[in-house]
């Protein structure tokens, strides 16, 4: 489990000095329907021939559930890389810092203390 503080003192390229940065987690924005990749994909999908590009997620059809044999499409990864979005509190300059893969990510959680009892 990764626990990251909500504020971090780090170097700002615009100010050219170490400043306090606000830390948030990067989220994917809404997909645009007129983007080149979306138009290319829609054009390729038209007509006969079924699915043309791989879908990387689990797919279970109704017939497969009856016969207790689910169909899995290609699924490569179980986690995503965490990307931190750092914003300078002085000049509002933003930068992104990728972290390693992890299953559990927490922003601004309680710090672990050595020799402290676990409370339930």
Textual characterization of the structure:
The protein has 120 residues and is α+β, with helices and mostly antiparallel strands. It contains two helices and six strands; from the N terminus they run E-E-E-H-H-E-E-E. Strands 2-3-4-5 form a four-stranded antiparallel beta sheet, with no helix packed on it. A two-stranded parallel ribbon has the order 1-6. The longest helix has 10 residues, at 36-45. It is flat. The mean pLDDT is 86.
Topology:
Elements (H helix, E strand, L loop, with lengths): L1 E3 L2 E6 L4 E9 L10 H10 L16 H5 L14 E8 L5 E8 L3 E3 L13
Parallel strand pairs: 1-6
Antiparallel strand pairs: 2-3, 3-4, 4-5
Family: Belongs to the eukaryotic ribosomal protein eL42 family.
GO biological process, one term: translation
Keywords: Ribonucleoprotein, Ribosomal protein
Structural class: alpha+beta
Strand order of the largest sheet: 2-3-4-5
| Uncertain residue ranges | none
Mean pLDDT: 86
Beta-strand fraction estimate: 25-35%
Q: Span from first to last CA? A: 18 Å
- How many distinct helices? 2
Global geometry: flat
Helices and strands, in order, run as: EEEHHEEE
Oligomer: single chain
How big is the Rg? 22 Å
Helix content: 10-25%
Number-wise, the strands total 6
Biggest sheet overview? 4 strands, antiparallel
Protein name: Ribosomal protein L44
GO biological process, one term: translation
GO molecular function: structural constituent of ribosome
Region (Disordered): 25-50
């Amino acid at each position: 489990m990764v626990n990251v503080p909500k504020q971090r003192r780090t170097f700002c390229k615009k100010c050219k000095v170490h400043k306090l940065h606000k830390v948030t987690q990067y989220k994917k924005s809404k997909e645009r329907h007129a983007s080149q990749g979306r138009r290319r994909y829609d054009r390729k999908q038209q007509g006969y021939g079924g699915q043309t590009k791989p879908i990387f997620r689990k797919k279970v059809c109704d017939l497969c559930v009856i016969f207790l044999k689910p169909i899995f499409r290609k699924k490569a990864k179980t986690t995503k890389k965490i990307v931190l979005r750092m914003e300078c509190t002085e000049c509002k300059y933003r930068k992104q810092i990728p972290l390693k893969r992890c299953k559990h990510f927490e922003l601004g959680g309680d710090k672990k203390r050595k020799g402290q009892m676990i409370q339930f």
